[in-house]
Amino acid sequence: MPIVQIQVLEGRDKQQIARLIASVTEAVVESLEVKPEQVRVLVSEVPPTHWGVGGVTKEEQP
Fold this sequence. Notes:
Largest sheet: 2 strands, parallel
Distance between the termini: 41 Å
Low-confidence stretches: none
Number of helices: 1
Number of strands: 4
Structural class: alpha+beta
Helix content: 25-40%
């Protein structure tokens, strides 16, 4: 049972997350030759205050 964990910044709508899950599932099915019902995709949304790039939070970046 493949499990894929994805972290994204908050702010995407439900449809975007659903498309992401569907696309990742399809890629795993094709590459690992497993059934779709065997694939688990976990999407965690991270607030910009908890995401840092170059020592600065995304919230602080212009």
